[in-house]
């Protein structure tokens, strides 16, 4: 009996002690990432992450260049912050998103983008569905062998973001030190990688995951494609004009001996195969060989973004097209492919554009041009322009 009394007394005094020392004991909350909370408020909630890793991908989409860097919600969240952070430029004025804007399908409405030391030498490529392609090289001239390696080259460019280590610029190691001293990066790198240590490889991995997460599969094309066995069948939700444009796009042309089309379609799918509409990795250039802000020719530009989201939902283009931004309407783009000129010095023109050694002449009529335009517009979705997980967190 004495032992029971002693034990009950001990419990009683323990409970009294807890209540008297801290009447708000149950209301104490430990904030693990205070700097993230201060910097981003409710735009980033590390306890309720946006879905980057498990988005719905249609079963007919089979191309993927992830290459050993699968998307992880934590790492992609870090990538989002890096993508929008102007601290990644030498003078804190330019971010990746300055040139790749969500409102323009992650492209730029201007022909050339503004960097910290001038304007870019090529138009900013759209980043829609970068993951869903056989092509693993990036930039218009394919100089980056992976998306990971591409992501930090603009940062290390003297004109763009200024950590080049040349022309009086500081090098990338200075950027790492800069980020290491920012509180929210200490927390985000710990959250994503289990360590506060920042490296270029970690930055590349995170940026690449965020960019690969930017996908668009809510278009009129996707709604029609989901109802058929293959893209060659008529889409029930398409108008007659849209189905005609689809057939023209998919069907190879027939040429005579001098490269003039005499039948068939126009064969866009030879380089931009459905349903991803990415670029064939073995493509040559498309005959646009001008140099932005310079003279002479450049025949090295053999890559392009997916043809998805060429236009917004209102039909206006997501900025100018081609590496020189030379075209501003779908009609002028189609007109270019309709008559290919064999320019002197262009030894890298794609063979499909020079049948029988002649520049192709598609001889399109107005009905065919309008049908192609109508079809290309079906490739645009809506969600990519408004989804908060791809928006500016600052």
- The structure class reads mainly alpha
The N- to C-terminal Cα distance equals 65 Å
Low-confidence stretches: 1-30
| Principal-axes shape call | globular
Q: What spatial order of strands do you see in the largest sheet?
A: 1-2
- Count of individual beta strands: 4
Pfam family, one: CCP_MauG
Domain Cytochrome c: 74-183, 240-380
Main location: other
InterPro entries: Cyt_c-like_dom (IPR009056), Cyt_c-like_dom_sf (IPR036909), Cytochrome_c_Peroxidase/MauG (IPR051395), Di-haem_cyt_c_peroxidsae (IPR004852)
What does this structure look like?
Pfam families: CCP_MauG (PF03150). Helices cover 31% and strands 3% of the residues. It is mostly helical and 394 residues long. The protein has 2 domains: 34-215, Cytochrome Bc1 Complex, Chain D, domain 2 (Orthogonal Bundle), CATH 1.10.760.10; 220-378, Cytochrome Bc1 Complex, Chain D, domain 2. Helix 2 crosses helix 7 (183-193), helix 3 packs across helix 8 (200-213) and helix 11 (330-338) crosses helix 12 (366-377).
